[in-house]
Fold this sequence. Notes:
The protein has twelve helices and nine strands. It is of the alpha/beta class and about 300 residues long.
Amino acid sequence: MPSHFLKIDDYSAKEILTLLERTAKFKKYQKEGRDHLYLKGKTMAMIFQKPSTRTRVSFEVAMHQLGGNAIYLRGDEINMGTREPICDVARTLERYINIVMIRANNHSDIEEYAQYSKVPVINGLSDFAHPCQVLSDIFTISEHKPKLEGLKLCFIGDGNNVCRSLIEISQLLGIQMTVCCPKGYEPFPKATHQYELIHDPYVAAKDADVIYTDVWVSMGQEKLANKKTTDFKGYTITKAIMNEAKQNALFMHCLPAHRNDEVTDEVFESRHSVVFDQAENRLHAQKAVICYLLGGDAWL
């Protein structure tokens, strides 16, 4: 059976560190303008049940720069799970392509697809996890703060898919993870995961090396917008909250951002912000994942 990249918990610390090393290698190649056509003749199918800017462009460009190509499939084109069973889609596409990336509404759809697929499956985002995002996030942190172990990463916002994946990767790499959210919005990782839960953002941000936030209302939660906006009042990342963190603290956001909701313009555009480094590094980190799963020359 092929390897997949569905959630961080499926990987060891050693494997994640190797992926980070390969990410650095691909970024260096990009900056030097060096060809890295390791996947000539390989094709990726990209299934999008949810639209995206960064995920689509970064994966499509990654495959192109690796010498392969990518096919974009809208969720409403194939209606996976309704027009055709997920298992049948998986067993059909594997006859045409070499690897699949799925951006899904439900994590269970990705897991079911992977169960039947004879080619590797990458989770491009689900309601439970966002492993590609947090791999690039940790790489971004390492560019500014090379010693990851012992760093304090403070996530202020909804305990969502990004938050859960950050908890998983932080535990693997020895990062001290603090989650700050209103009551009722706590993340639900496994009981074995270690992280600190604080409801006061000023207390949570104290001496943090990284302050991370995400949108309060995720795609598909539009009916909850008014309630969540009320519940998250006081959780906006402001200059005052950043002042509680270390002087050289980073501000991070997976984007897209709703400015002056979860973060002020002042913080978003400040010297602390590395949000566009995060966006760029999606490209390099995903090349590392793709080549790992396909056994590309970059991995040998």
